[in-house]
Write a structure and sequence with these properties.
Elements (H helix, E strand, L loop, with lengths): L1 E7 L6 H9 L6 E8 L5 H11 L3 E6 L4 H9 L6 E4 L10 H11 L17
Parallel strand pairs: 1-2, 1-4, 2-3
């Protein structure tokens, strides 16, 4: 299993797209740990709705302590053999988790895998 950690703070305009990009992964053995870092917009309601629909999504609501504290909190909750991160304004390619796992399997002695990203604006 792969644990995906997502800190979320006031991201109501794009958090749904980030969550859906994890849900649509071609590799299905994942858990998504979302840490709501004290959002004051509709982020908490949005992420709770996703957690109600998919048992692989776990949500924790915390007071605002910053993105690093949110990630560290989630790291103590993971159940997966591997851990990766996504920000609440990012989206994953549909095969991202499968590709990362393939690299780990090919290189049994590696501890960490990095991947490239593409930046885009608008649609």
């Amino acid at each position: 299993m792969i644990s995906v950690i997502m800190p979320a703070y006031n991201s109501e305009n794009y958090v749904s797209e980030a969550i859906e990009s994890v849900c649509k992964q071609s590799f299905a053995d994942w858990e998504l740990l979302i840490v709501n870092d004290g959002s004051t917009d509709h982020t908490p309601e949005i992420i709770d709705k996703y957690a109600q629909k998919d048992s692989r999504i776990k949500v924790n609501h915390r007071k605002n302590e910053g993105v690093s504290m949110a990630r560290n909190f989630a790291l103590n909750q993971v159940r997966g053999e591997y851990v990766t991160f996504i920000d609440s304004d990012d989206v994953y390619h549909v095969d991202r988790l499968k590709r990362l796992l393939k690299v780990f399997e090919q290189h049994k002695k590696c501890d960490i895998v990095f991947s490239r990203h593409r930046e885009f604006r608008g649609k």
